[in-house]
Every structure is written in C-alpha cells, then in structure tokens.
C-alpha cells in the first residue's frame, strides 16, 4: 500500500507529468516523420501518378485546417471524468493506430474483400495516408492545450514547451532513421514480414507505449468558463451533450472563414508580413521534405518505384529511399542541435539576422540538391535545411513577442 502511494505521488510530480504528456508528442512525431518518408514511395508503387500524389498528401492538412478550430472549441467546452483534452487525444490516437494498420496491409485487405484488388488497395492506402496525416497533425492541438492547462505558471509553461519542442525533434530523428534501415535483412523479418510490415509494426508498438503513458496524466485543473475564442464563438451548452457540440461545431463552420478573413484584415502590417514569410517558408520546406526520398530514389539512384520487387531497378529505388531517410534524419538532428543553441545565436547576432540566415540557407540547400548528382552533397544539403526547420519553429514566435512588447513600451511612453 505504501509503495503504491509512493508511485502515485511520483507520477503526479510536475516533471513526471511533463514527461508523460510529451511521450505521446514523441510517439506522434515518430509516426509522422516515418510516414512522410515512406508514404510517397508507397503511393508511387501502387500506381498513383506524381501529379495526383500531392492531392492525396493534401487531404490530411486540408481537413485539419477546417477541423482544428472546431476541435479546439469543443475541447474548451468539454467536461468529463477524464478532463477536457484527453478524450480528444485518445480518439485521434485511435485514428493514428488505424492508419498504421491500414497502410502496410492495404493490398492484403483488398485481396480479402474484393477480386479486383487494385482500386480497393488504392482506396485503402489513401484512407490510411489521410488518417495518419489528419489525426497525427490535429492531435498536437489538444496536446499543446493540455500542456497549457497543466503548467500555467509562465516559467513552468516555457519549460514545458521547451521539452515539447525537444521531444518533437527527438521523435523526428527516430522517425527518419527507422525507414533508413533495411528491415528485410533484419532478424525481425521472419516474424513481422516485409520492409513495410516491419516498419509499421515497430511504429505501432512505439505509439501504443507512448499512448499508454497518457493514462497516468493527472486530470487537468477545472477552469472557469472559457473566454470566447476570437476566430470562433461557441455558445454555452450542457457540458456532456455530444450532439449539441457537434451541432454547434457544424453551425459555426460557416462563419469560420469570414471571421478568419476579418482577423487577417485587422492584423498589423508587420505581423502580416511575418505571417506571409512563415507561410511561404513552411510551404517550401514541407514540399522539399515530402518529395526528398522519392527524388533520391529516382533521381540519384535511377530506381523505378513501380518495378517488380527483387528487380535491379526496384532495388536501386529502395536503396535511394533509405538514403533519403538518412538525409532527413540528419536534417532533424541538425534541427535538434540548433534548437539547443538558438538562444545563444540570437543573443550573439540578433533575432532578425538569425531568421534571415535560416531563410537564405534553404534555397542554397535546395539549389545544391537540384544541381548536384553527388549523394554526399545532396545528403549534406538536406542536413542544412535542419537550420531552417529549427528557426521556423522558434523565431517567428519570438519576433511576434518582440513586436507586442515594443508596442506596449511605446504605448506606455506615450502615456507618460
């Protein structure tokens, strides 16, 4: 009894709670990083043309763009024995687990369900890809809200999100490293099957372990009535009425985009320029990341993704995908290093100079990737984009904070 009480108190310690919440952050990023690396080649293998592959990969982000404000509003209003955030976290985590089951087994399921396997296999694969991207990306929203609920003190909150960013980078490192391993030649192949089945089996095991950690997260403190959200106003309803939440969510969907447009119009010009720079930078970086492994497999290694397994062309392509995964692993490793030293760089050179340097580093790396046919140069270029990745995660928020602080100082000076 005493030992159980000691364990319970240990789990409720602030640092233990921080670790338990961020374990799921780590697991999510592992799955998303591995998916970004491995999903485009899988889509090409089943016959999806490159011009349509972008549309498939855009399903999850588009659904997330619409659903995140609705999810945030519903989560703010929710009251239950498991808190406001964890029910949504668990529901989205189940979607991630379903996607990890569907993606490597789309062909097997199609053979069981339909004689004409190719259309059904393609549909199941697209469903799995959409689920992984949508549920994985959207799940970060209630996780961030849970961290804010648990760590309200400003110092504790800053420390919590520092650990959060570190765990994302660490999860990305592992997620990009796993596809770089030849699992067909590993000791697990006789038990787990092919390269895809081994990889996604390990991802499932990692994610289940990280998801189980949230069972020990203390229920967040009960808050007062939530403040109205600027982008989406939700009237108060019975806290346990799921149909009411769904009705309100869909009713407010029609007002979401007009409200967002109004917010953009009222945004100060400085912040609007920062927003445009951030948007364009992320578009460029994510496009580079999504197509990098396929570029290495086809462009550098001269492989063919639709070639029969075991052929020379397919072997070259698979080797290129693994080398591309290694390049993205180095990208995340460099991002991790720069995240640790970013404060020193900003103190030495200034926020604006470091941000501009990171923005310039990306086209230099992308240009070297396009012009060079050296595997070493292309891999080093991919690693260099980790500087941009780290800066985009940290510095725009710092610049926005600096803008608001200087504006407040200027207002106080006028008042005096």
UniProtKB/TrEMBL annotation:
What one GO molecular function would you report for this record?
A: sucrose:proton symporter activity
Q: Where does the record say this protein resides? A: Membrane
Q: Which UniProt keywords apply?
A: Membrane, Transmembrane, Transmembrane helix, Transport
Q: Does the keyword Cell cycle apply?
A: no
- The domain of life for this entry's organism is Eukaryota
Q: Which residues cross the membrane?
A: 20-40, 52-75, 87-110, 122-140, 161-179, 199-218, 274-292, 323-341, 353-376, 382-403
Q: Name one Pfam family in it.
A: MFS_1
Entry GO CC: membrane
Under the heading InterPro entries, the entry gives: MFS, MFS_trans_sf
Keyword check for Transmembrane helix, yes or no: yes
| Membrane topology according to the record | Multi-pass membrane protein
Q: Which family does it belong to?
A: Belongs to the glycoside-pentoside-hexuronide (GPH) cation symporter transporter (TC 2.A.2) family.
Under which name does UniProt file this protein?
Solute carrier family 45 member 3
Specify the species: Marmota monax
């Amino acid at each position: 009894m005493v030992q159980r009480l000691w364990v319970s108190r240990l789990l409720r310690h602030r640092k233990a709670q921080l670790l338990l919440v961020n374990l799921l952050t780590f697991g999510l990023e592992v799955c998303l990083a591995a998916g970004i690396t491995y999903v485009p080649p899988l889509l090409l293998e089943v016959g999806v043309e490159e011009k349509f592959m972008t549309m498939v990969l855009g399903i999850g982000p588009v659904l997330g763009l619409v659903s995140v404000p609705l999810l945030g509003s519903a989560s703010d209003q929710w009251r239950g024995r498991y808190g406001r955030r964890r029910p949504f976290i668990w529901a989205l985590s189940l979607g991630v687990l379903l996607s990890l089951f569907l993606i490597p087994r789309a062909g097997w399921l199609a053979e069981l369900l339909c004689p004409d396997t190719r259309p059904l296999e393609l549909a199941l694969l697209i469903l799995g890809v959409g689920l992984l991207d949508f549920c994985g990306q959207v799940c970060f929203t209630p996780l961030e809200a849970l961290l804010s609920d648990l760590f309200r003190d400003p110092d504790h909150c800053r420390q919590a999100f520092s650990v959060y960013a570190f765990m994302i980078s660490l999860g990305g490192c592992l997620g990009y490293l796993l596809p770089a391993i030849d699992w067909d030649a590993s000791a697990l192949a006789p038990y787990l099957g092919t390269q895809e089945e081994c990889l996604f089996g390990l991802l499932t095991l990692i994610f289940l372990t990280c998801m189980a950690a949230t069972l020990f997260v203390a229920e967040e403190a009960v808050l007062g009535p939530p403040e109205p959200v600027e982008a989406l106003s939700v009237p108060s309803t019975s806290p346990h009425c799921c149909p009411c939440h769904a009705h309100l969510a869909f009713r407010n969907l029609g007002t979401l985009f007009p409200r967002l447009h109004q917010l953009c119009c009222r945004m100060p010009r400085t912040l609007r320029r920062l927003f445009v720079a951030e948007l364009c930078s992320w578009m460029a970086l994510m496009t580079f990341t999504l197509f990098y492994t396929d570029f290495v497999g086809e462009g550098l290694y001269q492989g063919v993704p639709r070639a029969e397994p075991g052929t020379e062309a397919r072997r070259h392509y698979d080797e290129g995908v693994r080398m591309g995964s290694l390049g993205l692993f180095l990208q995340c490793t460099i991002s991790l290093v720069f995240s640790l030293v970013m404060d020193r760089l900003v103190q030495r050179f200034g926020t604006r100079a470091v941000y501009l340097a990171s923005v310039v580093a990306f086209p230099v790396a992308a240009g070297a990737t396009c012009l060079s046919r050296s595997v070493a140069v292309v891999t080093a270029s991919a690693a260099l984009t980790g500087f941009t990745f780290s800066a985009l995660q940290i510095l725009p928020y710092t610049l926005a904070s600096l803008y608001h602080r200087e504006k407040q100082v200027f207002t106080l000076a006028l008042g005096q």
